[in-house]
Amino acid sequence: METVRAGLLVVLLAVIESSAAWAVEVGAKNKTERSRSEIAVVESYLPKVESRLIPRFEFAGVHWPPKKVTLVAFKESRRMELWAEGGSGQWRFIRDYRLKGLSGETGPKLKQGDRQVPEGFYRIEALNPHSRFHLSLKINYPNDFDRALAVSERRRNLGGNIFIHGKNVSSGCLAVGDNAVEELFVLSSLIGKEAVSVIISPKDFRSLDLSSLPEGLPQWSYYLNGLIAQRLKAFPLSETLN
Questions:
Q1: 2-240: CATH number
Q2: pTM
């Protein structure tokens, strides 16, 4: 069992590291591969988005548009934070959004139809300018770690099509409202979707202990949340209070 757990953790760490490396290598390339409809959406919303975001970036001391951003979502508090990498390599808090639609409960997504929002480390793999939820950003669930766990547990039908989108209803996705998704869509398109990392955590482990997790979760979920708690140290809670 310990060998299996160690192997799964290696897969998870590889997912995190490869996502970061991919963002550096191909983020710029993506800027030239946008569809006409995506470009049209960006041109339509850009003035409004920049009028709202540029002052926040200036306050945080981060150049607009940034090179890389991380979205940190907390299921329990129904919040999503936008962080940008500053010139010093440190992450700077830009703003937060309320999750207006969120289904499920604490715990990872395991199968199609369980209405759970995934938990873990993800990236944006597609932008949809034609979403029926105004606009949307597709998360790469299931990632390699999710698939490896499913194989080890003999699970099938993991589900998919998990999005950050507009409006205020959701089934396994993160609904942030129309204004918020306009900002995230335009920002992701400008810097390249591969330059956007996503962390989805059941709780805010910057202020809560891992002991706050309920009993009965898969054993690997506690290991995963330990890694999430470690990663959240790069996004200090004190900075969100400035």
A1: 2.40.440.10
A2: 0.89
